[in-house]
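The instructor's notes for this session suggest beginning with a concrete chain rather than abstract definitions. Hand out the sequence below and ask the class to guess, before any prediction is shown, which regions might be ordered.
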Amino acid sequence: RLFVASITPIRPDISFSTNERINSFNQKMKEHLEGSEVGYLDTASGLRSWETDPPCLNTAYSGGDGIHLAPGAYYVILRQVCEQLVETLKVGGYGKDGLPYGYENYVRADS
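After discussion, reveal the predicted structure:
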């Protein structure tokens, strides 16, 4: 199965693009992929700082230049991707220990 991930946010002082353009592109891509064989993964939401308008890259996840991500950001993305794949029933199975994961057996870590 093929998935397309969203473009991640940037700092507001970056000149080559804006978060408004990125958000618009992500929304259009999500809408375009609905009903197709290609899935859409939102990797942007967890990286945003909601204290700005529009929301931009949270400084904790900036690699320093406002575009590239810090190592900690990839843990956020990994969690988002795993949760979305399981919640949309795109993955599931049994681990090496024989315990089921995914589908109805999945329990969110923050529950």
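Then share the key points. Strands lie at 3-5, 39-41, 48-49, 56-57, 92-94, 100-102. Residues 103-111 have pLDDT under 50 and may be disordered.
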